[in-house]
Amino acid sequence: MGHILCATRGGEPSRRTQERAINLAQTRGDRLTFVYVADTGITPPGQAALAEVVGDELERLGHRLMDIAKARAREQGVVAFTVVRRGQVQPTLLAMLSQMQATTLVMGAPRAPNGEEQVSRHQISSFLDEVRALGIEVVVVD
Amino acid sequence: MHEFIRIETLVILLLLVVSLVALAVRRVRFPYTVALVLVGLIITFEERPEFALTPELILALFVPPLVFQAAFHLEISDLRDNLVAILILAVPGVLVCALVVAAVVAFGVGLSLSLALVFGALISATDPVAVVAFFRTLGVARRLAVAVEGESLFNDGTAIVTFQIALAAAMTGSFSPVAGVLHFVWVAVGGLGVGLALGFTVSRLIAQVDDYFIEITLTTVLAYGSYLLAEQLHVSGVLAVVAAGIICGNIGPRGMSPTTKIVLYNFWEYIAFLVNSLVFLLIGLRIDIPQLLDNLGPIGVAVLGVIVSRAVVVYGLGLLARLLGQRVHLPISWQHVLFWGGLRGAISLALVLSLPATLPDRQLLQVMAFGVVLFTLVGQGTTMQVLLRHLGLTERPSQVVDRELQLGRLYAAQAGQRRLADLRRDGLLSHEIWAGLRDEYARTRRQLASDLRDLFAQHADLEREVLLRARREALQAERGALADALRKGLIAEHVYRRLAAETDQRLEALAIISDAEEPTDPGE
Q1: Most buried among B104, B127, B196, B430, using CB within 10 Å?
Q2: Is the pLDDT of residue B518 over 70?
Q3: Residue B387 pLDDT
């Protein structure tokens, strides 16, 4: 049985990513885990003292969003697990993929709410290459 | 003593009127500042209070806190994104406005060119407070609000400098364009320099202190001190306050605790409310309706000049900037809002009241200025909401409206159910009536809750927004409970401060998370 890791952060694009991951878990019979990474990098440099508190609130938000993702999977007959971690998104995901022995990574193309790309194509491409080098299948949902 | 008591009584009565008007406009979507002017006008029909609306009162007492508060809330990043548009409107825009208005009133009213230029300069400062309040309540794009407020902040200063140059030319009968430009640059740049220096200094001081009483006092000293020092140095006091406010509002918070930030923002929001209210009420009390009616012709010409000049500035300069390859990036709908949102107010009135007694046609210029201010406030201020709706700049995503409809119905149903429970407990409802109504409300609530779940399932964007809002409200309730605990003597003052600071840090963290999610141009 494979293990699908779905990186998600809530919102409409994440809903599509979650739906895709749920669909894969249904068709393949794989185990499904939703992952939320609380990235305190959003804290402005001048407010670095608040990074810890920002991380706490992001984790709290993440747990609630993971509850929603889990409920979404349950409605479609899939039992999903959830994990919330704090750190930079890509290194944290890489570490978790190894620790949890994932076989598939499902993620959305990183975009800001105004539709602009948050991360450069080169950065995404490098990250995906690293994941594939671990022998893990990658599914990117637009 | 008697005079002091009279003034004190007048101020308290004005504040009472302000409170009553503020309560009244909550029920109707009417610009608050326009309502104050109209109420002031109505009061004068009964009795005109004795007071002097002097230029010193407006410029030295009222304007610094208003300008400081607006500049304090202006993010440098937002200012940078709109800087070209703002500077075009605030610098060449003011000069073009002054010239066009001067041409229209010189031709239409028969004023000398020098006096017409004085009028053109003093009437070119915009005061959009009446329309900016609408932007917030109607959810207009933040960039548009920044463009309108940013223009007003900077053109206050440039209008005053232009007015001083035009007035000197009118009084002396001589004018040198080169000297005029040099004087303009010296006064403007000098004022900005004074503000920047003081803004940085106070921001550094604030970083050394962790006591919000002291920090609030320092910002108050900065708001008035920058104005007074700049005026002493014969440079622009208003631009000094603008620069000081922007610096303090962007750098100062880095050295503030979350508690201080919340208290400071609330303090300046209250001061701005108070001062704006008094200014517009006093304007209404000062306007002499019979005098306006006797001068409808010149006022009409002045209004026409202001409207035409505003169109030339907004549409003309915008087009010119694009032709010259400047990326101004103001959609045409926003230009319409900028055009119609160019209201006039306190600065123009302060300048016209400061005209020397020996200036020819002084009274005519004052009547024209009051007439233009009244027209822009009542005519343009009250119709801005219609324009915003017509341009589709207040449209919100349908799922947000649907969510609010469902939430509103659910909230109302819950309140209804609670009231029924109270009536039952007080023995005012029989069991049969109570059971039937209770079951009906319970069915309604279940249906509404189910509809909301479906809505969230279809529009996942609402999930984060609802979560963040719920967390914010819960934290605010926690903060209120801490204050109650202090009042009841359950916790000591130092314990309250520590716990409140922790809650404020969490609220600040939520604001950072929300800002990281906010779309940049929801109105486009």
Answers
A1: B127
A2: no
A3: 87
* Bridge partners (DSSP) listed for residue B173: none
Handedness of CA B355, B360, B362, B364 (dihedral sign): negative
Please compute the mean of the pLDDT values over residues A75-101 and round it to a whole number: 92
Out of A58, A68, A114, closest to residue B463 by CB: A68
Which two three-digit tokens encode residue B125?
A: 């400062």
Contact B252, B342 (CB under 8 A): no
Contact between B464 and A11 using a beta-carbon 8 Å cutoff: yes
Q: What angle do CA B160, B161, B163 make, to 5 degrees?
A: 65
B481 near B234, Cβ under 8 Å?
A: no
Task: Say if residue B451 is exposed, middle or buried (CB neighbours under 10 Å; 0-12, 13-18, 19+).
Answer: middle
Plot region of B47 (φ>0 → left; ψ -120 to 50 → alpha; else → beta): beta
Q: Report the distance separating Cα A42 and Cα B430, nearest Å.
A: 58
Position A57, amino acid: E
Tell me, what's the pLDDT at A119? 52
Q: What is the pLDDT of residues B375-421, one digit of tens each?
A: 998 888 888 888 888 887 776 667 677 777 877 888 788 888 888 88
Is residue B450 less than 8 Å (CB to CB) from chain A? Answer: no
Decide: residue B47, CB within 10 A, 0-12 exposed, 13-18 middle, 19+ buried.
Answer: exposed
Dihedral angle, C-alpha B129, B134, B140, B144, nearest 10 °: -20
Residue B494 Cα distances to B207, B210, B487, B506, angstroms? 21, 14, 13, 19
Distance of CA B319 to the CA centre of its chain: 28
**Minimal Cα distance from A15: which residue of B?**
B460
**Residue from the list A42, A46, A113 with its beta carbon closest to the beta carbon of B513:** A42
pLDDT higher than threshold 60 for residue A115: no
**Residue of chain B whose Cα is closest to the Cα of A39:** B513
**Local structure of B352: helix, strand or coil:** helix
Model confidence pLDDT, tens digit, residues B9-30: 888 988 999 999 988 888 877 7
Give the position of tokens 């200012």. Answer: B79
Of A12, A47, A53, the CB nearest to B254: A47
A-B contacts at Cβ under 8 angstroms: 64
Structure tokens at B450: 């189910």
Predicted model pTM = 0.72
Among A91, A71, A86, which Cα is nearest to A18's?
A: A71
* Cα–Cα distance for residue pair B68/B264, rounded to 1 Å: 13
Q: Strand, coil or helix: what is A106?
A: strand
With beta carbons under 8 A apart, name residues in chain B contacting A57: 471, 506, 509-510, 513
DSSP annotation of B383: T
Whether residues A50 and B467 touch (CB distance < 8 A) is answered with no
Question: Tokens standing for A51?
Answer: 């990074």
Q: Backbone phi, then psi, for B75, in 5-degree steps? A: -75, 135
DSSP string over B26-90? HHTT--HHHHHHHHHHHHHHH--------HHIIIIIIHHHHHHHHHHT--HHHHHHTHHHHHHHH
As a whole-number percent, the residues of chain B with pLDDT over 70 amount to 92
Token pair for residue B234?
Answer: 């014969």
| CB–CB contact A11 B460 (8 Å) | yes
Using DSSP's 3-state secondary structure scheme, residue A104 falls into strand
